[in-house]
Design brief:
By secondary structure, this protein is mostly helical. It contains six helices and no strands.
Amino acid sequence: FFFFKQKTAYEISACLVGSEMCIRDRVMCLSPVGEAFKRRLRTFPALVNCTTIDWFLPWPEEGLRNVATSQLHDLSFEEQKLKGIVDICVDMQERVARLSERYYQEYRKYYYVTPTSYLELLSIFKKQLNQRNQMMNN
């Protein structure tokens, strides 16, 4: 079988063309935030015209809690305080999502609340906490 021997890209494509293993689909993930996304769509209109766009739904509360707990588990807090911090992070993300809907209704402009923004919130929290701890220790 051709996977056991090292072959050139041409030999592999020759084996795949016409078979059921022909690879034609491509996956590309882009953040819908900012000017870069708009510029890419203007530069490459086939990104919209010839593709299927999957928009991701907001994370459920349980997912937000699990992510926050796993990201913040290494902090030196007792269990009750850590739970309170996780609750605050989840609440902040859900409020921002609701406010972004209100922002769209009032101004007809989108503000995207993405999983990346939630991970950035957690990262900034950890960074700020470390900075404050260093200030207190000095």
